[in-house]
Amino acid sequence: MGRSFIICDKEEGYAQALAAFFLRKKELALQIQVCSSPEQAAAIQEEQEADILIIHDAWPMEERRKVRAENRFVLTESGNADLEDGETALYRYQSGEALLAEMMQICGGEFRTAGELFLRQKNGHARVIGVFSPVHRLGKTAYALKLGKELGASSTVLYLNMELYGGLGGHFPEEGSTLADALYYSRMEGKELGWMLATMVSHMGPLDYLLPARVSEDVKSVPAEDWRHLLDQIISEGMYETLILDLDEGIRGLYDLLRMCTEIHMPVEGDALAAAKVLQFEEELHILGYEDVRSKIRKMEGSR
Fold it and tell me: Rounded CA gap, 105 and 45, in Å?
């Protein structure tokens, strides 16, 4: 069951928009209710006490006290508010992403850990689908995104583009958090990647994703163990039932990353040159002792 979350604001449209933003974050386990007065919020609590309250500072302290909650955030239009112990001010006119990041930063320190408060229960298991082909220009990324959206309709899916040139401005917008940002936080000791990831992911319909790295060297220079550590962290957080890895032969430790996959989808074409490239790749797997990787490959005809 998700955490009980009440948003109380005199402008009900603002509260509903904020609730819609949080609900789009499928990795967050929240039961959100919207109201336009402390009296309504107090009535909601007769059935279930709130874990989290966001309330507008338009109501004075004595009115806000009517609503009980373990973690209390007060929306302020000026950045300043008359607060009592246990209340934290949030600037009302910042973006939803910035507001969520600030809340989770606070909940990760002063209050309970962000993992307990916000994120879905960890299970430490995930289906990991690698999408890779030694043949280029087959629509590999388009295939991976289409697959992610199909799976995302019934489960939580995270897509990671691990190509040297992922195509910002093509399949993806130019602004947003990238895979390089996730690697940065993954390397930080004492930080929970899960709650940072929740503030970083973008959405493509039902699919969550991180933008590709902006600079190819940020991908080429990543040691194989850093890739494995990042994926292990994401899987152990249990926020996603499926990971889709859009892989490139230019990354370090490619074969070991393919070994981490539960299945590998390989877009192919029927011409002789493409078949020769696939055969060379499969023979190399055999020579280097990666027969287990070879057995996971599912060739996807006509993927372009």
Answer: 26
The model's pTM is 0.66
Tell me the C-alpha distance between 149 and 141, whole Å: 12
Q: What is the mean pLDDT of each run of 10 residues along the chain (304 residues)?
A: 76 85 70 84 75 88 86 82 85 84 66 46 77 90 94 91 85 86 82 71 88 90 93 84 94 94 91 91 94 93 56
**Residues whose CB is less than 8 angstroms from the CB of residue 95 and which lie 6 or more positions away in sequence, other chains included:** none
User: If we measure between CA atoms, which residue out of 44, 39, 88 comes closest to residue 64?
Assistant: 39
Structure tokens at 182: 């996730």
In sequence order, what DSSP letters do the residues of 145-175 get, joined into one string?
Answer: HHHHHHHHTTS-EEEEE--SS--BTTTB-SS
Buried/exposed 273-303: b ≥16 CB within 10 Å, e otherwise: ebeebbeebbeebeeeebeebeebbeebeeb
